[in-house]
Amino acid sequence: MVRALIHIEITNAIRHNYDKSILTWARKAIDNLVTFDVDNLSEPSIINYAVDLIKQANYLIVIIDINAEGSAGPLIHLMDVLVNQKSKPTILVLNGENAILSKMGAAIGKDRLKKNQSLEEQQELIKKSFLIPAFV
């Protein structure tokens, strides 16, 4: 059983800080959790790895932080694969505004789409999703 947490950042500048507090917290809080971090400026092969993880995960949470008006274009295929994972427990968190990602994210369903979640709300969502017996 693969439980995965993928963090995606939409940015317009190359990051120098790769430490994401939600991923650091999740690695400590949840045993055997696969985490992955990618952004819209990543190489296509890295984005494809995230797509493969989406396909392989039995339980999945994807958090997208939209920090700038960076292009979401490189992530369109990833989003398409994500919203078509109807048969498995999947939650999408969209923090920020991006018209394309919001429109695609809506296809996942209102009960599985969360918007503008604080760090504490994300932590609660992860705990509830990955620790309760009904989900794991």
Summarize the structure.
Helices cover 38% and strands 24% of the residues. It has five helices and five strands. A five-stranded parallel sheet has the order 2-1-3-4-5, sandwiched between helices.
List keywords for this structure.
136 residues; alpha/beta; Rossmann fold; 5 helices; 38% helix; globular
CATH topology: Rossmann fold
Instruction: Tell me the radius of gyration.
Output: 14 Å
Percent helix, as a range, is: 25-40%
Largest sheet: 5 strands, parallel
Q: What's the overall geometry?
A: globular
The CATH homologous superfamily is named Toll/interleukin-1 receptor homology (TIR) domain
Helix and strand pattern: EHEHEHEHEH
Query: What count of helical segments does DSSP give?
Result: 5
**Residue windows where pLDDT falls under 50 for at least 5 positions:** none
Number of strands: 5
CATH architecture: 3-Layer(aba) Sandwich
Derived from helix and strand composition plus strand pairing, the structural class reads alpha/beta
Instruction: Tell me the fraction of residues in β-strands, as a range.
Output: 15-25%
- Spatial arrangement of strands, main beta sheet: 2-1-3-4-5
Tally of structural domains? 1
Average pLDDT confidence is 89
Query: What distance lies between the first and last C-alpha atoms, to the nearest angstrom?
Result: 9 Å
Q: Any idea of the CATH class?
A: Alpha Beta
